[in-house]
C-alpha cells in the first residue's frame, strides 16, 4: 500500500510503498476512504508524543470500508462502512467497564501507538468495541472529521462543560475542533464568542453560529465586555500556553475552563493563574475524545440541520499531498478541516 511515512521527527515525510497491515484477532483492516489532517498529527510528526516510534505513519481521524477481519470479531463484516474514535479502547480495564473508554488505561491509538490512516489501509484494534457504522448518506470526508475533532468538541461542550442555554461560551482557536465547539455550543442555546488570529477562521466561526468574533489581542477586555464579566465556559481548542492562560482568564467567577488542545511539554508550560482559580472558584477540566458508544448522540446532531457539517471540511486532497498538508498545520494556512482521500 501507499502511505505518508515519517522517517525522521520534523523531517520531510514521503509517500512510499509499505507493507499492507494485517488484522489482530480482535481487530480489522480498513480501506481508508478519507482521513483528516489534525494538529495532533503534526505533534506526532514533530516527536512530541512519546508513543510514536519511527518509521511512522500519522493519521487518526478516518472513515473507510472493512476489508479484513480477525477471527474474534463478531459485530462487523467485510464491506461495512465505519469510523472509529481515535482512542481504540481495550474493553477490559476498570475505565472501560465504567463506560469511560476515552480514558482507557490500555488504549491504542492509530497514528500514535501504531501506524495510522495517512495510508490506503489501516489496522484497528478491538473492533467490536470501537467501530461505529456510518449512515449511508454521510460522506466519507464528513465522517472522517468525527473521529477526533467533532467528537472531542461534542463531549467537551455537552458532557464535560455541560453547556446550558443562555450561557456565554468563549472558544479560543477556530480550527476544526474550535469550529465544532462553536456549532455545538450554539446548538445547545449558548451565546458564543470565537477567538482566532486568522480573519478567515473568524469569519468561518460566524457561519458556524458565533455571535461575536475577536482577534486574540482584543480578547482579554473584549470577552469581559461582551459577556458582562466573563464567559461561563471557556475552551482552549488550540493547545498553546498562551491560549490556555487566555481561556482561564476569560472566565467569570465560578466559570469552567475546558482544555481540549494538547499541551506537549515541548511547547512550554502554561502559566495557569491558580490564584484566580481559587479566589473565583473556577473549574479547570480536561476532555479527551469520546467513546464509541456515545456516537449515536453525535450522529443525531451532525446529520441534523443544527450542525453545519457540510461547511466544516473546506479542502480535500489526494494522499500525495499529505506531506504538504501536514506541514501547513503549524501555520494554520487553511481554515476548517483538510481531508486526504487515499
What would you note in describing this structure?
This protein is an alpha/beta fold and 342 residues long. It folds into 2 domains: 2-149 and 290-341, Alpha-Beta Complex (Quinone Oxidoreductase, Chain A, domain 1); 162-286, NAD(P)-binding Rossmann-like Domain (Rossmann fold, 3-Layer(aba) Sandwich), CATH 3.40.50.720. Helix content is 30%, strand content 23%. The protein has 12 helices and 15 strands. It has helices at residues 39-46, 94-97, 127-130, 140-160, 176-187, 199-207, 216-226, 241-249, 274-279, 295-302, 309-312, 322-328, and strands spanning 2-5, 14-17, 28-37, 61-69, 81-83, 121-124, 132-133, 168-172, 191-195, 212-214, 231-236, 251-259, 283-286, 313-318, 337-341. Helix 5 links the parallel strand 8 (168-172) and strand 9 (191-195).
Amino acid at each position: 500500500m501507499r502511505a505518508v511515512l515519517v522517517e525522521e521527527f520534523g523531517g520531510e515525510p514521503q509517500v512510499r510503498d509499505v507493507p499492507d497491515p494485517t488484522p489482530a484477532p480482535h481487530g480489522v483492516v480498513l480501506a481508508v476512504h478519507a482521513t483528516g489532517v489534525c494538529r495532533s498529527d503534526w505533534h506526532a510528526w514533530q516527536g512530541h508524543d512519546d508513543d510514536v516510534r519511527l518509521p511512522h505513519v500519522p493519521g487518526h481521524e478516518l472513515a473507510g470500508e472493512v476489508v479484513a477481519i480477525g477471527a474474534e470479531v463478531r459485530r462487523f463484516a467485510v464491506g461495512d462502512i465505519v469510523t472509529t474514535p481515535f482512542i481504540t479502547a481495550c474493553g477490559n480495564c476498570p475505565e472501560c467497564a465504567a463506560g469511560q473508554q476515552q480514558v482507557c488505561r490500555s488504549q491504542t491509538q492509530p497514528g500514535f501507538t501504531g501506524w495510522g490512516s495517512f495510508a490506503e489501509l489501516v489496522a484497528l484494534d478491538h473492533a467490536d468495541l470501537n467501530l461505529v457504522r456510518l449512515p449511508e448518506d454521510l460522506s466519507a470526508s464528513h465522517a472522517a472529521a468525527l473521529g477526533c475533532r467533532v467528537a472531542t468538541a461534542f463531549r467537551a461542550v455537552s458532557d464535560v462543560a455541560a453547556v446550558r442555554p443562555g450561557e456565554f461560551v468563549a472558544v479560543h482557536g477556530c480550527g476544526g475542533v474550535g469550529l465544532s465547539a462553536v456549532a455545538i455550543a450554539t446548538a445547545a442555546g449558548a451565546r458564543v464568542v470565537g477567538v482566532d488570529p486568522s480573519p478567515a477562521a473568524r469569519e468561518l466561526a460566524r457561519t458556524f453560529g458565533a455571535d461575536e468574533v475577536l482577534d486574540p489581542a482584543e480578547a482579554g477586555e473584549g470577552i469581559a465586555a461582551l459577556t458582562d464579566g466573563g464567559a461561563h465556559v471557556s475552551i482552549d481548542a488550540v493547545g498553546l500556553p498562551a491560549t490556555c492562560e487566555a481561556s482561564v482568564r476569560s472566565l467569570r467567577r465560578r466559570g469552567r475552563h475546558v482544555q481540549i488542545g494538547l499541551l506537549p511539554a515541548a511547547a512550554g508550560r502554561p502559566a495557569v493563574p491558580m490564584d484566580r482559580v481559587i479566589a473565583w472558584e473556577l473549574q479547570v477540566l480536561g476532555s479527551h475524545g469520546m467513546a464509541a458508544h456515545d456516537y449515536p448522540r453525535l450522529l443525531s446532531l451532525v446529520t441534523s440541520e443544527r450542525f453545519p457539517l457540510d461547511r466544516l471540511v473546506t479542502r480535500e486532497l489526494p494522499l500525495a499531498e499529505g506531506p504538504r498538508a501536514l506541514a501547513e498545520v503549524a501555520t494554520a494556512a487553511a481554515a476548517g478541516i483538510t481531508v486526504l482521500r487515499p
